[in-house]
Amino acid sequence: MKNLTAIIFTFITIFLQTYQVNADEDLYQIIAEIRAENAKQSLEPMNSKDPYEDYNRAVFNFNLGFNDLIGEPIANAYNVLPNPVTTGIANFMQNLGEPLNVINALLQGKVEVALSSFMRFSLNSTLGLFGLIDIADEAGLKYQKEDLGQTLYTWGMWQESSFIMIPFIGAYTTRELIGASINSTYNPTYTEIIKENKIDFFIGGKFVDYAKVVHLVGEMKKQPDPYIFMRESYLQHRTNLLYDGHPPVPEMDDFDFE
To answer: How far is it, in rounded angstroms, from Cα 120 to Cα 113?
Structure first.
């Protein structure tokens, strides 16, 4: 409990100091200019090609075999647990990611999102029984994922990220993968709360995410090319995150009606 209290007060200090330091809006003005320049140049967030397709397909088939043999049976057994149990575990894992949401929202100049994520973490970690109950959502504070991959795109440092498959874990983009690796080095959750067994918590979080969507695997297999279907679905998901759910609408000139 002491560690939890410490991290909450640490984030209060960081947030207030960051907001105070940037009260003149110099930093956020710079970020806004970068985002505006990105929009002006119509920079593509994702690589339209698949430079690692041969590797990706091999890993995809491996992961699909693992899913059929081991992953899906375990996930289905987990999903049989009472809904309050699985929901509580999912809420707990999601709450552990809120500190990174705060940091990356600030780095992207999204002060309101950072404040919302900070309030979510504070409320759910205390009144929500260490995050088991998402009372912040009921209070109108909606969850919004912000990671370093999104931050790098906002800064204009990495355009046209490519799709890549990771054994056992699944789909990533190259920008997201590098961002996640860096995130793990400064994640306050790991340094202040989870000082041991970090890998276990990482795997646990990935499994909870997987269990939520395991029922979609069957539908994916019905597609003419399951790999293409999964790749395009994931790239669209990441694009929506980059644009906070409002990706740019393609120009009519981009469509060929002939």
So the answer is: 10
Encoded tokens for 140: 């109108």
* Overall size of the chain counted in residues: 258
85, burial (CB in 10 Å: exposed 0-12, middle 13-18, buried 19+): exposed
Q: 135: closest CA among 91, 174, 97, 93?
A: 91
| Predicted local distance difference test score (pLDDT) of residue 37 | 56
Task: Decide: helix, strand or coil at residue 207.
Answer: helix
Helices 2-21, 98-107: axis angle to 10 degrees equals: 10
Q: 223 near 127, Cβ under 8 Å?
A: no
Q: Kindly report the pTM of this predicted structure.
A: 0.78
Say which DSSP state 142 is in.
-
Q: Work out the percent of the chain whose per-residue pLDDT is above 90.
A: 57
Contact 116, 144 (CB under 8 A): yes
Angstrom CA distances, 66 to 60, 69, 71, 211, stand at 10, 5, 6, 14
Cα atoms in the Cβ-side hemisphere of radius 13 Å centred on 92: 16
